[in-house]
TrEMBL record:
Belongs to the bacterial solute-binding protein 2 family. The lineage of its organism: Bacteria, Pseudomonadati, Spirochaetota, Spirochaetia, Spirochaetales. This is Periplasmic binding protein/LacI transcriptional regulator. The keyword Ribosomal protein does not apply. One of its GO terms (cellular component) is cell envelope. Transmembrane segments: none annotated. One of its GO terms (molecular function) is carbohydrate binding. It comes from Sediminispirochaeta smaragdinae (strain DSM 11293 / JCM 15392 / SEBR 4228). It is found in: Cell envelope.
């Protein structure tokens, strides 16, 4: 076996099975132009759009790409980062697995001389990532909370579905919702449960809640996937009087809004965050600096209702 072939075989063995789901064309195995893009899930439309936007931007700037998923598992995330280090990547663009555990993984990359750029989820540490491109979740949640109160007529019994407790965004969105809703004494929260960003869990939680609390007439959700699960549970219960609000702006929820099944959602600038992360990585690779004074950059969210849902697709305006 030639030395070159041996190197390629050993490098392939470093990629954990099931983590790699797409890659740009590699230039003879050269690692000096490789940008590694890591997201939580290849099936969730939010993360697919994020990965696609980052990949397209990186390749438009002349980089080859390797895309991988960590499944919200910090250990798998660490294995992928080790692969990026072994491949001598020029940058890592990542939507992290865990706000508290991921910094240790990211630090291994930075210690190896690979700059890291976070998108979507932030980490509970500074000085490790060169930049963190984050949706303004608090601002967005306030928009969602204001619209929820409005369509509920400032009164009613509601449920809150919360995302993963390990994800900083889940807590920030919940605080944003309550910053508005709690100002209205006739808005009564009868249940607040996590559904872990999952459509299946959103369905099962709301199915149980409606059985115990048939008086519920509103559900506000920390993401659109849970909102879709909630809406399915409402349909299964034969209810048509329950208002549902989501958060993310995925295409399936936009369709539901236009069909009149879901009342509204908050659109995250998902593609913008991904593209900016890659652009800043490119700037850093070429100049040694992002050119920014702050590590965290917040991009504002948008309220989506039936009036403007048709104007958006793939987390961007048509």
């Amino acid at each position: 076996m030639s030395k070159k072939l041996l190197v390629l075989v050993l490098t392939a063995m470093l990629i954990p099975a099931g983590f790699l789901f797409s890659a740009g064309q590699q230039d003879g195995g050269e690692a000096s132009n490789l940008m590694v893009i890591i997201t939580p899930d290849k099936d969730n439309t939010f993360f697919t759009a994020e990965a696609d936007a980052a990949k397209a931007k990186a390749e438009s700037l002349g980089y080859t790409t390797l895309l991988a998923v960590h499944g919200d598992d910090p250990k798998k995330e660490g294995d992928i980062i080790d692969t990026a280090i072994a491949r001598k990547a020029v940058a890592i663009i990542i939507d992290v697995a865990n706000a508290d555990a991921s910094p240790n993984n990211l630090k291994r990359a930075t210690d190896a001389g690979i700059p890291v750029f976070c998108m979507d989820r932030e980490i509970n540490a500074t000085g490790i990532a060169k930049a963190q491109l984050i949706s303004n979740n608090f601002q967005g949640a306030k928009l969602g909370g204001e619209y929820f109160v409005q369509v509920m007529g400032e009164k009613g019994n509601y449920v809150e579905l919360v995302g993963k407790e390990s994800d900083t965004n889940a807590g920030v969105r919940s605080k944003g919702f309550h910053n508005i809703i709690d100002q209205y004494p006739d808005m009564k929260m009868v249940a607040r449960q996590t559904a872990n960003w999952s459509q299946t869990e959103g369905y099962s939680v709301i199915e149980s809640v409606l059985q115990a609390n048939p008086e519920v007439n509103g559900i506000i959700c920390g993401n659109d996937t849970m909102a879709l699960g909630a809406q399915a549970a409402i349909d299964a219960a034969g209810r048509s009087d329950i208002i549902v609000i989501g958060f993310d702006g995925n295409d399936n929820v936009l369709d539901s809004i236009m069909e009149g099944k879901i009342e509204g959602t908050v659109m995250q600038p998902n593609a913008k965050n991904a593209e900016m992360a890659v652009e800043l990585a490119d700037t850093y690779i070429k100049t040694g600096s992002t050119g920014l004074d702050e590590e965290k950059i917040l991009n504002d969210c948008f309220l989506i209702t039936k009036e403007n849902a048709s104007q958006w697709r793939g987390f961007r305006k048509k």
